[in-house]
Amino acid sequence: MDAFKAYVITKDEDAKKPNPAEWRDITLDELxxxxxxxxxxxxxxxxxxxxxxxxxxxxxxxFPMVPGIDVIGEVVSCESDRFQPGDQxxxxxxxxxxxxxxxxxxxxxxxxxxxxxxxxxLSPEHAAAIGTAGYTAMLCVMALERYGLTxxxxxVAVSGAAGGVGSVAVSILAxxxxxxxxxTGRQSEAxxxxxxxxxxVIDRAELSEPGRPFGKESWAGAIxxxxxxxxANLLARTKYGGAVASCGLAQGMDLPxxxxxxxxxxxxxxxxxxxxxxxxxxxxxxxxLAEDLEMSKLDALSSTIKISEVPEKAADILKGxxxxxxxVDYS
Length: 331
Ligand code: NDP
Hints:
By secondary structure, the protein is α/β, with parallel strands linked by helices. The chain folds into two domains: 4-118 and 301-329, Medium-chain alcohol dehydrogenases, catalytic domain (Quinone Oxidoreductase, Chain A, domain 1, Alpha-Beta Complex), CATH 3.90.180; 133-271, Rossmann fold (3-Layer(aba) Sandwich), CATH 3.40.50. The protein contains ten helices and 15 strands. Strands 3, 4, 5, 6, 7, 14 and 15 form a seven-stranded mixed sheet that branches. A six-stranded parallel sheet has the order 10-9-8-11-12-13, with helices on both faces. Helix 1 (47-53) packs across helix 10 and helix 2 (124-146) packs across helix 3 (164-175). The protein is globular. The two termini are 19 Å apart. NADPH dihydro-nicotinamide-adenine-dinucleotide phosphate is lined by residues 46-48, 132-133, 136, 159-166, 184-186, 204, 208, 225-226, 230, 247-251, 272-275, 317, 320, 322.
């Protein structure tokens, strides 16, 4: 196979930070080992991709690294019998783009056990629009449902609602019949969020500032992408017996909370991880996404960019400037 283009991040020995990503020719031999070669047709830009381009050591743990945590593409060759050339696949997480070379290249070499078949009826563009953020939003909804949340129990709050996880979460919850309270720092996106199905839009400052350890019971459940005071306030204002699904740290990785919501209201804190989630749960999440996410809403919350725009958008996502989801189209 001839050389092909990729974003490559290197780190000089003894340097504190990696070098900025270079767009350069590489060969298959430079990719991490795996039994399956995939031609990448689409990807996306997640918050974690933003952290990778910024050289965050918690994300990039091997060099040289091709970033990009979401691969949507076509199998070129597979040494196991799980896939045949031409199969259409989706791959999210598993350390790809962090410790295993990732999506921002024409080809990716991956392990077949990380791949799921792209469901019939889900286009590659929609699979990219969903990406890790959208699939994590579904995992959060599933976690709340496993805990017993139903629309009759009351509203669900979503933090970072104008971002990737948040906007998909708002859309899914609205389709499922929940009353959704969307929290955003961008009041200019209030109409966008109402069109996705939010019943109420609140200012994120209401949640992101230090609050009372035990507040008014305001929602039966919540999905949190922010951590820190936002998560503490979400817990403090969850109704008796409710639950909060925590998946992110856009505000901070700290949790300045008290045990009061747990011990006086039986509130549960549900951790959600997408990276190492087992294959069956991923397949279930995509099945549910195909049913419970209106593709017209997904279109409304996503926009398409070229691969040359990835570094700029990676910087924007860390500044909270990206609305919804980005589709990277390699054609
Ligand atoms: P986005 O950047 O698209 O969305 C994050 C949103 O958080 C922003 O758009 C903004 O929303 C809000 N936000 C930003 N800064 C702050 C702040 N200081 N305080 C409160 N809210 C803030 O990122 P993603 O949706 O892709 O990811 C969200 C988080 O979830 C990240 O931390 C990411 O690492 C994590 N994540 C975790 C996964 C897992 O497996 N656990 C998988 C996927 C993501 P608004 O403007 O509406 O306020």
